[in-house]
Amino acid sequence: MGSRFEQLADAVLAGVPAGPGDALAVLGADDAEVLSVVAAAGRLRRAHFDNTVKVNYLVNLKSGLCPENCNYCSQALGSAAPILKYSWLSTEEALKQAGAGISGGAGRVCLVSSGRGPSNRDIDRVTEMVGALKAEHPDVEVCACLGLLSDGQAERLKDAGVDAYNHNINTAESHHHNIVQTHTYADRVDTVEKAKRGGLSPCSGLIAGLGETDEQLVEALFALKELDADSIPVNFLMPFDGTPLADTWELSPSRCLKILAMARFVCPDKEIRIAGGREMHLRSLQPLALHVANSIFLGDYLTSEGQAAEADLEMIRDNGFVVLGSEEDSAAREPADPAIRRRGAGTAVVPNA
């Protein structure tokens, strides 16, 4: 008989959904069980997504100066984080930035802007960008993330060629008021529903490490399941200096793996994306996380740097995965020659230690 997590995977594959108790058991697994958790969740990942990894690329169209007070955000009202702040990129610059991600292997470009929500003029800007982007790269998926939507805006984005809309619920409804006070949890859910009614694929996820309990993480995941989000980005808090959650360090690499595995058990056939904070919190376990999640962001994030894009693509190849939509296979590239040691013992140069 397999482990309890193998038995859970068997049940999910047989059509029995994981319940809140199952999700709590995954989060509460001992660190000695992490490989069993990953192996079991990986069966679900392979069953629905085989060996593919969807690669996404962010373009921050407008950075900083947001009137909302989300405590985790470096762009929020009151944040003193030393980030880049600028108004809207031109269409030409947005295309240049998006093109860099596409040439790096991204199959989806996420066009993001700071702010409470778009004005109709903002929608005009974005639809112009999307038209130009689709003309140049007709096969690329476009996801917009512009904040709270007003009536009719999702339909306009859909008509312009936008494929998906991202608006994260971020945390459980029971914890939301502790994280942001300038809009409600219901406001966020309403925007996801507007996107769905407008014909856009709903993309909505969470941020782990906001001071939530295990029960609240489970609550958030089941809310995303209820929303029927097609894509679920799992972010890990990056505690920027100058924000209310600076110096908040609640996550370990194994904890992050369990959170991703919980998402896979609860939403086995949905795109689970390793999003912001993966380099900081998963660290050397990033490759293991790919055996649970099937999607990542390539390169940099909205206000923080990610690891080198080539390192991401190498990580995908080295773990036997292929980029979704690419023609590459899992064959290794020509190996690099060994680097000759020229430091440490026998030299005057300090050792690599």
From TrEMBL:
Pathway: Cofactor biosynthesis; biotin biosynthesis; biotin from 7,8-diaminononanoate: step 2/2
Binding site for [4Fe-4S] cluster: C66, C70, C73
Protein name per the record: Biotin synthase
Domain of life, per lineage: Bacteria
Subunit record text: Homodimer.
Family stated for the protein in its record: Belongs to the radical SAM superfamily. Biotin synthase family.
Radical SAM core domain mapped to chain residues: 51-275
CDD domains: Radical_SAM
Gene Ontology biological process terms, A to Z: biotin biosynthetic process
Chain segments carrying region Disordered: 327-353
Ligand binding ([2Fe-2S] cluster): C110, C143, C203, R273
Organism: Amycolatopsis thermoflava
